[in-house]
Amino acid sequence: MALSDNNKNSSAGSTLEPAEKIERGIYVTISVIYNLFVIFILLVFLFMIPISLSNILDIIKNEIPIYGGSIGEILFFGMIIFVGMRTPHLRYPYEIIPVLSPLVCILFIMFASFQFSQTIINEWAHFNAIGKTTAIICAGSFLVVVRILLSIWYSKYPVQEEEGEN
């Protein structure tokens, strides 16, 4: 009798209960949908960086504002990425591909810096609050400073494989 009780307990530990299976299925489904959305965001970053640069050059050439992304958009994308990196059930891709986390951070920071630079140039073109040369120098300096800070950060904390990986 005691032997059969032990077998029941050992078999119960190796299989999932129906409620646990449903819970795990929900986690997997949410993770897949969420990470597909993050892939979409990364594609937006990849395409918006050169588009923002093109917009900045067009604004300087034509002296007409071209509105791109907003600060709310940057905050929303940042929040989505942060939640994905910090939630255990959603960070599966970052654990599988360790270089993905710094890559996403770099893309987000560059996307945000180009959007802010475009905003600086737009303020000049729309309101004429500052001179054209001053706006160009401010926007360009902002981009250069962001790139220098990223370089310093990743030279101080380089992307490395974990100790257990070969």
How are the SSEs placed, and which strands pair?
Layout: H1 2-14, H2 18-62, H3 71-86, H4 92-96, H5 100-127, H6 132-156
Helix pairs in contact: 2-3, 2-5, 3-5, 5-6
Transmembrane segments: 26-52, 64-84, 96-117, 129-150
Keywords: Membrane, Transmembrane, Transmembrane helix
Quote the average pLDDT: 86
| Count of runs of 4 or more consecutive helical residues | 6
Structural class assignment: mainly alpha
Report helical residue fraction: over 70%
Helices and strands, in order, run as: HHHHHH
Keywords: Membrane, Transmembrane, Transmembrane helix
Polypeptide structure, described:
- This protein is an all-alpha fold.
- The chain has 6 helices and no strands.
- The protein is elongated and about 70 Å long.
- The relative contact order is 0.10.
- Keywords: Membrane, Transmembrane, Transmembrane helix.
- The chain crosses the membrane at residues 26-52, 64-84, 96-117, 129-150.
Provide key terms for this protein.
disordered N terminus; mainly alpha; 166 residues; membrane; transmembrane; transmembrane helix
Short structural summary:
The chain is mostly helical and 166 residues long. The chain has helices at 2-14, 18-62, 71-86, 92-96, 100-127, 132-156.
